[in-house]
Amino acid sequence: MGKILDRLFCGLMALATLGHLFGTFKLLQPGTGLFVWSLAGVLAAALLTALNFLRSGRPQDKALAWITLAGNLGWVVIVVLFGLSVGNLLDFRVLFHGFAAAGLSCFSLRILLSK
Questions:
Q1: Those residues with Cβ within 8 angstroms of residue 91's Cβ, 6 or more apart along the chain or in another chain
Q2: pTM of the entire predicted model
Q3: Packing angle of the helix pair 2-27, 33-56 (nearest 10 deg)
Q4: Which residue in 13, 72, 89, 114 could disulfide with 100, CB within 3.0 to 4.6 Å?
């Protein structure tokens, strides 16, 4: 059950990443600095999602769990900073990304605390 729930959170993070990608192309002018940085955020989220998916199938890999824990917690911080920058911590984007990253942080920590 835990592995299924872990992968469900990976799916939520993947959906959040796709939403970020869609928003980048929908709202930003291609070729601008903000567009490029937004794509960098998409890449970071996609890589974090992939690492978490890999971690979900390797419960013995503590090094990978440390990497994903650091990445997930870092993503939570970035999401909160984004919410502050737009003046709304209850923004759907903040809540969606934050919920997914916080959940994945718990699964990474669970591996680290297991024997």
A1: 83
A2: 0.93
A3: 170
A4: 13
Please check whether residue 75 is in contact with residue 10, taking contact to mean a CB–CB distance below 8 angstroms.
no
The average confidence (pLDDT) of the chain is: 97
What is the rounded distance in angstroms from the CA atom of residue 72 to the CA atom of residue 84? Answer: 18
DSSP secondary structure of 6-73: HHHHHHHHHHHHHHHHHHHHHHS-TTSHHHHHHHHHHHHHHHHHHHHHHHHT-TT-HHHHHHHHHHHH
Element (H, E) at 105: helix 92-113
> Which tens digits make up the pLDDT trace of 14-70?
999 999 999 999 999 999 999 999 999 999 999 999 999 999 999 999 999 999 999
Distances (CA, A) of 77 to 31, 99, 102: 27, 12, 10
Q: Which domains does the chain have, with CATH numbers?
A: 2-113 (1.20.120)
